[in-house]
Design a protein that fits this description.
The protein is of the alpha/beta class and 374 residues long. The protein has eleven helices and 19 strands. Helices cover 29% and strands 30% of the residues. Strand 11, helix 7 and strand 12 form a beta-alpha-beta unit. The longest helix is centred in the C-terminal third of the chain and has 15 residues. It binds S-adenosyl-L-homocysteine.
C-alpha cells in the first residue's frame, strides 16, 4: 500500500479489518486487510471488487500454491521447502513451510493472525497435514507470547529429519523462530556441494547450524571451518555433520565473533580456498554492530584477504533494503580497496518456491554471488 492511501485509513482501524482502497476519484483500486508489518500497513488481496475475502478465497489461494509446488512434492530427495510465500502466492503477511508431512505457518502481523481459523482450515483441507506449528512473528504488546508453537494434528518427534537434494537436516519446529535450516538457500547449497567444494578448504562464517559446511563436506571439501557466535551453534553443527555421516572431529567448529576471527585469521595469514559470508542484515555482538547495508563492503574486504588466489567467495545477503545491483557495487568497492581482481561466476536470488511479485521488490530479498578472486 502506498503512503497516500494509508493516510486515508479511518482512525482506530483494527488489525485484520477488511478495507477497500479507492483513488482520489473514488474509483476502486483493491481490497485487502489492515495489518502493521514493518513499514507496511496491510496487503491488497484482490483487485476485483466483486470478490469476497472469505473461506473460499483463502482455500483457492492455498490450493493454487500447492499445485505450483507439485514438482517439489514429488521429488523424493527433497522433503522440505516453502509451500506458500506471502504476496507471491496472493496473501501478503503469511508463509507456510513444509517439513516432511509437517507444516509451519508464519504470521507477520496481528492483522493476518485474525484469519488463523480460516487459513488453518483451508490448509488442513488441501494437504495431508501430520502436524501443524506456527511462528508468530509480531510482538503483541503487553501480552504473553506463547512459547508452544504447536497448533493441530499430532506433535512431531524432534529432531524431525528432512532432506534437501539428498542432504539430511535435523529440524526443530518448537524451539523459537529458527528451525535449523534456511530453506531459501537450497540451490546455493547444492551448487557448493556439486561444483565448488571438491578438495577445497572452506571457511563458513555466520554458520548457524552449519548447513553450508555440511554441503561442502559432502561435496568433498578437504576441511571445513564453521564460525558462529551463538553457543548453541556448536552442538547443532555437530549434529548436522553426524546425521550426514561426516566425522565432525575432522572439521573445525568455532564459537566466536566472526569479526574477531577475521582479525586472527589475517594476523596468522590463514588462507582458504572458499569463504562463505552469510551474515544477518543486522547483528549486535559485545564489540560490534553490523549492518549489511553499511558494513558489507568491509566484511568482504576481510574475506578477500584470507581467500587464496583463484579461490571462491560466496557472498550472500538477505537484507531487503538493497538490491542485486547495489550488492555488486559493494563487491566492486571491496575488491578495488584490496587491489585484487575478481570475476563473478554465478548469481542466485530466491528459489522458485519463494515466489515474488514485481510490485513488491523488497520481497525479492536474497542475493548470492559466487566470486572468484583473481
Ligand atoms: N548462514 C547460515 C544462516 C546464518 S543466520 C545458514 O545458511 O544456515 C545468522 C547467524 O549469524 C546466527 O547463527 C547468529 O548466531 C550469527 N551471528 C550473528 N552475529 C555474529 C557475529 N558477530 N559473529 C558470528 N556469528 C554471528
Amino acid at each position: 500500500m502506498t503512503e497516500a492511501s494509508v493516510k486515508k485509513l479511518p482512525k482506530g482501524i483494527e488489525e485484520g479489518a477488511i478495507i477497500e482502497l479507492t483513488d482520489e476519484n473514488n474509483r476502486f483500486i483493491g481490497k485487502g486487510y489492515y495489518g502493521k508489518q514493518n513499514k507496511g500497513r496491510g496487503w491488497i488481496l484482490t483487485r476485483n471488487q466483486q470478490e469476497t475475502l472469505d473461506k473460499t478465497f483463502f482455500a483457492k489461494k492455498i490450493k493454487t500454491a500447492f499445485e505450483r509446488r507439485a514438482a517439489l512434492f514429488s521429488d523424493p530427495e527433497t522433503t522440505a521447502f516453502r509451500v506458500f510465500n506471502g504476496e507471491g502466492d496472493g496473501i501478503g503477511g503469511l508463509t507456510i513451510d513444509y517439513y516432511d508431512g509437517y507444516y509451519v505457518i508464519s504470521w507477520y502481523s496481528e492483522g493476518v493472525y485474525t484469519f488463523k481459523k480460516t487459513v488453518v482450515e483451508a490448509l488442513m483441507k488441501t494437504a495431508d497435514v501430520k502436524g501443524l506449528y506456527e511462528k508468530k512473528r509480531f510482538a503483541v504488546k503487553g501480552t504473553y507470547m506463547e512459547d508452544d508453537d504447536f497448533v493441530a494434528g499430532e506433535r512431531a518427534a524432534f529432531p524431525l529429519m528432512v532432506k534437501e537434494n539428498g542432504i539430511n537436516y535435523p529440524i526443530y519446529l518448537n524451539e523459537g523462530a529458527m528451525v535449523g535450516v534456511f530453506l531459501d538457500q537450497r540451490h546455493v547449497r547444492k551448487t557448493i556441494r556439486d561444483k565448488y567444494a571438491k578438495g577445497n578448504t572452506v571457511l563458513n562464517t555466520f554458520s548457524y547450524t552449519g548447513a553450508f559446511s555440511v554441503a561442502a563436506a559432502l561435496g568433498g571439501a578437504s576441511k571445513t571451518t564453521s564460525v558462529d557466535l551463538a553457543n548453541r551453534s556448536k552442538s547443532k553443527t555437530i549434529e548436522m555433520f553426524s546425521v550426514n555421516g561426516i566425522d565432525y572431529e575432522a572439521q573445525d567448529i568455532i564459537v566466536e565473533d566472526v569479526f574477531n576471527y577475521f582479525k586472527y585469521a589475517v594476523r596468522k595469514q590463514l588462507k582458504f580456498d572458499m569463504v562463505i559470508l552469510d551474515p544477518p542484515s543486522f547483528a549486535r555482538s559485545k564489540k560490534h554492530t553490523f549492518s549489511a547495508r553499511k558494513d558489507y563492503p568491509e566484511l568482504l574486504e576481510q574475506a578477500i584477504q584470507i581467500t587464496e588466489k583463484n579461490g571462491i567467495i560466496v557472498a550472500s545477503s538477505n537484507c531487503s533494503t538493497f538490491n542485486m545491483k547495489k550488492f555488486k557495487d559493494f563487491i566492486k568497492k571491496a575488491f578495488s580497496h584490496t587491489g585484487d581482481g575478481y570475476r563473478i561466476l554465478e548469481e542466485f536470488t530466491l528459489p522458485e518456491d519463494f515466489r515474488t511479485i514485481k510490485e513488491f521488490k523488497e520481497g525479492d530479498y536474497l542475493k548470492v554471488v559466487f566470486i572468484q578472486k583473481l
